[in-house]
Amino acid sequence: MQRKRWMFALLALLPTLAIFAFVRIYPIGDTLRLSLHKWDILSKNKPFIGFANFEELASDPLFREALLNTTIIAFGVLLITIPLALVLAALIYHRTRSRLAGFYEAAIFIPHVVSLVPAAMAWKWIFDARLGPLNALLTSVGFAPRSWLFDPVLSVLCVIVLCSWQALGYAVIIYLVGFKSLPTSLYEAAELDGASAPQRFWHLSVPLLKPITLYVSVVTLVSGFNVYAQAFVLASDAQGAPGRQVRVLVLDMLENSFRNYRVGYAASEAVVLLGIVLILTLVQFRMLREKGRS
């Protein structure tokens, strides 16, 4: 009987597993195969070259720039999103009896579901050197206007701000779920012992929400390493040509594939990105397992 149940469950899941393998597993395997070939779209000869593409990546200054910018963006978004989301979730949770609680949640979550390109265009106008409201605000208080999208450092900062604005809503909602699952008896006992609200937050909420913090951190990092549309739109010119100030991994892969026709080389970049994501995922499982043992 047990074997029949397992067979029934396997047969029921087989169509879904087949679709998942075709949509997810097969492209990953094919990318690994392409990364080991000199795969040029315009050439019929696509020889096997082993790890030559990866060796070239190590000496490619554009790849190193893209990897550095992507890493800075990913960890910058993480450092902004996690603390801010935790504080905002705590404030909203303690105002759940307010009639505006639902409005607060919706207002914070809306940026997460807004389409990337229109949102990036709006922020591009905000950062505009001549007509943007940010420079107008700086000028009104006595600061000099800045060329936000043309400075190599400030343009990366602009991408971090945009990505943090979009990632914040999801993190807040996840933290809210965590706050609602915490035992209220601990907070009542701490309040009776004279603990202030900041003390209860720091010594109770933060440690108890550590598993959720780990989950949100990994999701935020993975999303940060896959950043593309935000950097592309913010750094593009009026004709839509991609800018050179914010080079990220996904943009570098697309340029190598469809502009330079070096599909095999771009596939090796995708493999590196896959390795980064897998490492971050393994770190998440390791930390969660250690948390469970403790």
TrEMBL record:
- This one is known as Permease component of ABC-type sugar transporter
Task: Tell me where in this chain the ABC transmembrane type-1 domain is found.
Answer: 67-284
Question: Mostly located where?
Answer: membrane
The record's Pfam families line, in alphabetical order, gives:
BPD_transp_1
What biological process terms from GO does the record include?
transmembrane transport
Q: Which domain of life is it from?
A: Bacteria
| Keyword presence, Membrane | yes
- Cross-referenced InterPro entries: ABC_transporter_permease, MetI-like, MetI-like_sf
The UniProt keywords, alphabetically, are: Cell membrane, Membrane, Sugar transport, Transmembrane, Transmembrane helix, Transport
| Chain ranges passing through the membrane | 72-94, 106-126, 153-177, 212-235, 263-283
